[in-house]
């Protein structure tokens, strides 16, 4: 504790950071918004970034390294901003990982990536792929190493259980799914989003264009843009890329897995 604050010292993907709050309950909610599988450390790390949320009588304040970032009467949007800030910080400083906004599943020892913005239907399609037998890796981030292989980021799926509901966390087990453990080579990258009434009519995308498109979905890695592009190019060396809008997730999932089956193994 320092200055009346409670603190947790964490590491995620090799990047240390400290979370501090004005109450234990607030600190627990901050920890829930930390990157998936963040580890706790016994002591602080020199030079680690410091993320603080404090509560006053009328508002909450987010402070990063002593700089006020945001203030709000409601805690939820501030925690959303905290979560984004933590992920950007980890992505910018992870020594051997690149993060892409993408759903990811494994299929018979190879990875399928679904890059896309939020609310494009990635999670719905990932869930249908799991129901068809695919192995769950992520509904939000493709985590690539320097060889272009994908590692699990297997947080609970963030799903809308009906059209009007807010997102709810759904464990993989609730969908009778399996979670990936090992890294996988990328075999297929599909650029798609839900468009009502659309049919699956995929068009090929060149490896170079696919890498550039995925760069648009990378969490900003401002310190090492050349490295990020090199990792994406490596991931696409033996991969196929397709583009098409899709209708309902179930038939699209079947078509995508069939397309993956047709890709020769290298």
- Largest sheet report: 8 strands, mixed
End-to-end CA span:
54 Å
Q: So, CATH architecture of the largest domain?
A: 3-Layer(aba) Sandwich
Mean pLDDT: 93
Number of structural domains: 2
What is the CATH H-level superfamily of the largest domain? P-loop containing nucleotide triphosphate hydrolases
Q: What share of the residues lie within helices?
A: 25-40%
Shape, principal axes of CA atoms: globular
Contiguous helical run count: 6
Task: Characterise the protein shown here.
Helix content is 27%, strand content 30%. The protein is of the alpha+beta class. The protein folds into two domains: 6-93, no CATH class; 98-261, 3-Layer(aba) Sandwich (Rossmann fold), CATH 3.40.50. Strands 7, 8, 9, 10, 11, 14, 15 and 16 form an eight-stranded mixed beta sheet that branches. A six-stranded mixed beta sheet has the order 3-1-2-4-5-6, covered by helices on one side. A two-stranded antiparallel ribbon has the order 12-13. β1 and β2 form a beta hairpin. α3 (122-131) crosses α6 (249-261).
Main attributes of the structure:
6-stranded mixed sheet, Rossmann fold, alpha+beta, globular, 30% strand
């Amino acid at each position: 504790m320092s200055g009346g604050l409670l603190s947790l010292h964490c590491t995620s993907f090799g990047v240390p950071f400290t979370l501090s709050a004005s109450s234990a309950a607030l600190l627990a909610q901050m920890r829930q918004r930390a990157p998936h599988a963040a580890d706790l450390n016994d002591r602080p790390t020199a030079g680690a970034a410091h993320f603080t949320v404090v509560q006053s009588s009328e508002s909450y304040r987010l402070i990063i390294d002593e700089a006020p970032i945001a203030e709000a009467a409601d805690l939820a949007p501030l925690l959303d901003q905290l979560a984004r800030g933590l992920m950007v910080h980890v992505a910018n400083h992870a020594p051997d990982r690149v993060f892409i906004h993408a759903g990811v599943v494994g299929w018979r020892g190879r990875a399928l990536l679904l890059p896309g913005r939020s609310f494009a239907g990635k999670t719905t399609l990932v869930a249908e792929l799991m129901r068809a037998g695919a192995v769950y890796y992520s509904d939000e981030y493709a985590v690539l190493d320097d060889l272009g292989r994908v590692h699990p980021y297997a947080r609970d799926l963030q799903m809308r259980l009906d059209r009007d509901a807010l997102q709810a966390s759904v464990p993989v087990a609730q969908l009778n799914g399996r979670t990936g453990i090992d890294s996988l080579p990328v075999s297929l990258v599909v650029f798609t989003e839900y468009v009502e009434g659309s049919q699956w009519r995929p068009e090929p995308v060149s490896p170079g264009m696919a890498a550039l498109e995925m760069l648009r979905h990378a969490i900003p890695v401002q310190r090492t843009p050349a490295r990020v592009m090199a990792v994406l190019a490596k991931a696409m060396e033996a991969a196929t890329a397709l583009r098409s809008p899709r209708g309902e997730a179930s038939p699209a999932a079947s078509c995508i897995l069939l397309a993956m089956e047709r890709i020769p193994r290298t």
